[in-house]
Amino acid sequence: MSQEAQPPSAPADGVVWLRPKYQNRQAELVTLSDGAQLVGVSKSAVSNWQKRHGNFPALVLLTGSLHKRTKWVVAAELIAFAREQQERRRAPKTGHKSPQRPGAQIAAEQTEHYEEVLRTLTQREQHQKQALARTRAAKKTAEEKLSRARARLTAEVDAVVRLGIPAARTTATEKEPRP
After folding, report:
1. Which residues, in sequence order, are CB contacts of 72 under 8 Å at separation 6+?
2. Contact present, 46 and 90 (Cβ < 8 Å)
């Protein structure tokens, strides 16, 4: 036991005796934390035992503030409880197992599930094929329009060159306001 884990011998503030018959028997008490070390398990194991098992040893004493209580139990009771838990873990598993679904039923459910997955994926594939066809058609139309626009631009540039009009003068006259 640690130095600070000594139960109070006289009543004090923040001390609640849940089992007053142990008031003059503080040497028999242990904190849950020290009890975990005593029985060779983690603190969380003792905490889980306390939460999950109705036959966990009753608390004897609470110390500390309302927000952070130290819980005390009878050491012998905690050791007996820990022994019982270890014996239970070592005992062969007996009793009734929960009914299991037959393998054929599981396989049938999996088959049905994957058939539905396959139907869904096939539908998605068809939608994507249609979308790809629309995209390719739109791309082809855009390429044709680009080709025609380039041809018109080339024709315009050739016409300007044949007329001998410098490009700079053409753009300057286009920007001037007309009277």
Report:
1. 7, 29, 30, 31, 32, 59, 60, 61, 62, 63
2. no
Q: 31 φ, ψ to 5°?
A: -75, 160
Residues 6+ apart with CB under 8 A from 120: none
Please state the separation of Cα 19 from the chain's center in Å.
43
Q: Rounded to whole angstroms, how far apart are CA atoms 38 and 82? A: 10
Instruction: Identify which of 113, 116, 22 has the alpha carbon closest to the alpha carbon of residue 76.
Output: 22
Strand arrangement of the beta sheet that strand 16-17 belongs to: 16-17, 61-63, 70-74, 29-31
What is the value of pTM for the model shown? 0.48
Q: pLDDT tens, 96-110?
A: 666 777 888 889 999
